[in-house]
């Protein structure tokens, strides 16, 4: 979502138009509002919508399909006689008191409810979505969504802008930290669970950015050229799974173009795929400033312009009056919005605000950080830290005061403000959660010091004097820009190399929004990827480093050994005027690219170590209405730990598919030496190929191979499956 564009102030005419919504110039109600048929909460949302729609005037219908301008800048004022705009809102659609239609109060909430500092309101700064994805935990994603829903409602909002579902085609995408990794099945499943969680709290959920908004460079003008099969089996599959499993009532269309049309006016994306093929019953809202026309956009399937009324105000009204947009289409737009509001219960309760449960939010944040952190390397059992480490040096990453968070419209204002001396919307922000203090609290008999790392030579000299050195390395990502490359910025690679040369017991903790290259990897025995770990990030990191929690996260995105190994060695930086991208890798996204091309990533999709070890045995498969996969998982170590067991499939020859695709997983917690039978049920669609000619999924007859193991490149079990 773009937040930097300046919009024109709301015109006097527009204010008057909104004011007329409750005036005596409109048809009078014959009965009290509470006794109107559509106010009967025992009826279905569809029935209530059908009763309300005929009572609306043309002006009222037009008013429902766009919002006010400048809400996201904090300068907009609600029209007289209407609900006030909730503090921190980025979008607002005024209520229609005459008919009991509530105002829509919309907030950004990808990793927490944003703009809390506007009114000194607390909202939990959660770990990055990529951290959440690396937990592979359906229940945890639901818990996150429910937390977001509660905190949105507590702050006076009734609609969420979260649900980022764009897959990581390129690890340099500046918004990968807001998304759920490179695999569409994993991303779609988790975003669906989070959406269910949001809507369980009576808040309208959202999935975005529809579709193929896979880079920030030239995002408002970029034309993505992609065939239908590639679309449906990669980016769109994540949306399909998420939308169908969650029932979310809003989808945000993206800035970019798809096959020549802007996403927010693409009949193929909105009308044909989303509403017809996926059966989406909710409404499509534009990203901020992503509406470009009235007639084309409305007829293509866009239901709500945000922000302002430039296109879906008077121009849309005139288009309806002149037959360029049918009355039936306008009624469909309005009906979709009203049905979503009825389904969320917005007609049936008055908004109330309260202080959120801070402790509950922090507990969820810490759980995500602990489950999503990935132990990438741990040679010679360097971790967990033990009492033998009498002296420890922390280096860099402002680890004395805080943990890094991502930037852009998803940035959540942390309690107490920025932990480092930096201010402004574009400032790099650290949350006040100190790894130094948390480690000191857990290891009171160990001397733990901090060095900024600004002088690598000094840090190296200090590292020689301690038992263990821990370098905290950071990589800042944000909306509206992509990474130039995957190396750590500010010469941190040189810092790590210097410290590791001075002390062979050097641990690296990464706080990053994307993968990074690691030229120093051979010099360090242990690496922990903590991502952007949220408000209790330091507590989680300290628990993981000391063994209070055994790492269980698995990578939701591949770490390349070098950028030359990526499908595109350089991020698309297209010529000005008519930027266009052809994703020539097609179906081979992420780990599928490495498998198909015979390349070895630095760390594979699904990789993640534990303080224990696991063995897989006895794979069995059976096909009925679903594929039933079972195997035995054993904790062969001496530590209670959780393993994420992964299942992949190789499709029959001739399907043109990459070597393997993820089809299922299960988080399994085991005591030392404990064994458990693991059962996973797989929807046949996940074994299918999209047939563009038939516009549907097809299960190809032939020989399938089912694989099970601990990562996409560590699959010790396989079994054949024949499908007739």
UniProtKB/TrEMBL annotation:
Family, as annotated: Belongs to the glycosyl hydrolase 3 family.
SMART domains reported in the protein's UniProt record: Fn3_like (SM01217)
Species in which this protein is naturally found: Granulicella rosea
UniProt keyword list: Carbohydrate metabolism, Glycosidase, Hydrolase, Signal
Keyword Ribosomal protein found: no
Record's signal peptide: 1-28
Biological processes, Gene Ontology terms: carbohydrate metabolic process
GO molecular function, one term: hydrolase activity, hydrolyzing O-glycosyl compounds
Fibronectin type III-like domain residues: 643-712
Keyword match Electron transport: no
Protein name: Beta-glucosidase
